[in-house]
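Feature request, filed as a ticket because there's no other form

It would be nice if the structure record came with a short human-readable summary line next to the tokens. Right now we just get the raw output. Example of a typical job, pasted below so the devs can see what we mean:
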Amino acid sequence: MLPFRTILVATDFSSESVQAFATARAIAVGTASRVVLMHVLPDEPPTPWEIPPYVDFGLSVVPAAEYLGKLRAEVSRRLETLAAEHFAGTAGCEVRVGVGDPARELVRASEGIGADLIVLATHGWAGWRKLVFGSVAERVLREAACPVLVVKCAARGVESPTPPPPA
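Raw output as currently delivered:
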């Protein structure tokens, strides 16, 4: 398994998922690995006005097939931007857009590209939110054939505590 050669990094465009990029980049640079940055669209993507992260993509109402094509293109464009911002200096960064169940598609993609490591963030949800929304990270951990690094992020709406001043 070591050294890593291909690292799959998952993002849902949330600030939490972006927090995992620094860890993934450090590993990629340290092991001269290529990165595959991936986002998975739901089987039936929401219309722009329904739920984030697509609400700010600026896509107008169009026929469903055309909307999905435009959505994929915009997601790819945003992935390319994130790749340029966060993964410069790695052995290369490819972007991928999947469609379907996020955990299943991430595991499938990891097998398809021969990933040696999957890096993704956890949103820190607990209680009913975790029950309702499930945990992509947990499912990927259970189902992936390669190691999975889950970067723990601060819970939504909770800021990281400020360290006390030196004594």
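Something like this underneath would help us a lot:
The longest helix spans residues 64-86.
The two ends are 44 Å apart (CA to CA).
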